[in-house]
Design a protein that fits this description.
By secondary structure, the chain is α+β, with helices and mostly antiparallel strands. Helix content is 27%, strand content 30%. It has 2 domains: 78 residues, no CATH class; 214 residues, Fumarylacetoacetase-like, C-terminal domain (Fumarylacetoacetate hydrolase, domain 2), CATH 3.90.850.
Amino acid sequence: MRFRRVIVREGGSEDLAVYDATAERWLPIAATAEALGDRTFQELPDDLIALLAGGGRTREILRSLCSSASEQDTAPACELAPLLPFRPLLMRAFATSERHWLQSARGHVRRNMPRALPVISAVEFVTRRPFRPFRPGKLFYEEPAYYIGNALTFVPDGAEAPWPAYSKALDFELELGAVVVREVRDASVTGAREAIGGFVVVNDLSARDTQWREIRHGIFGPLSKTKTFASAMSAELVSADEILDRARQLNAEVKVNGEVWSRTDTTDQRWSFEEMLAFASRGETIQPGELMSSGTLHDGCSLEIGRWVSPGDTLELTVEGVGSLRNVIGAPR
């Protein structure tokens, strides 16, 4: 089941909408429930996190809402405005693709230490393994690593992707995001699974020249001005029942100005979302509304593929079954 926020034309109010696949239209839930006059529908929450927490029972009520709207020819008109489906309470950005990590490290050397690359390539050829400094640390292979991102700077699908004036190397990062809809603490993998309510497409924007400086000279690594200025999220959210079982079997794609720059997938993700959430909940209460991102999919950023966006470019990131995230790249400011 798919959800997004819309603007109801009559009155101009914002409403949470569900996609009626049979009629191929978006139904604003509160406005439709009011028009139908059915108390059962009117009791549906307007908050997406609370709605998803209702699970299968709530989805059945929503299917009945769609059927009733069709039977009574009741469907308040709405506009698909550039709105976030929900405002994340907190963002936990994981790193789950070893291939992305290796290729990104190689990309940094290519950009900043090009003379070293032939020597490193020769070492890799002789040893038949990745250059040791390129590999992630030992804990990457033992537990799901993550950092806390800035949940306050998310922009929605259709909005401009900000380019901070201090950077000359803006990069996109194609990621899959999952939202937590139930409180968990010290959760098992099974318990964590039950707390995941839906999935979105995420772009964890990065300033790569800033990242290079912060990695080499910073105190806290590349977690300050490299990442905190902005991230983007798809306008649509897909309920977990449609994605969770195949979250590590999805194809994905990057397009810039309509041209395919990269094709990737989620098949090399070392950790499942259930494992990520179970780990994050160790000794810590995870709240409904928190967002977990998969980390960049391999070949899902400029640093890996060697092609860079410019101001005015239209960037479109797509994950199979989840949807697309489209933003125009802004000018540095």
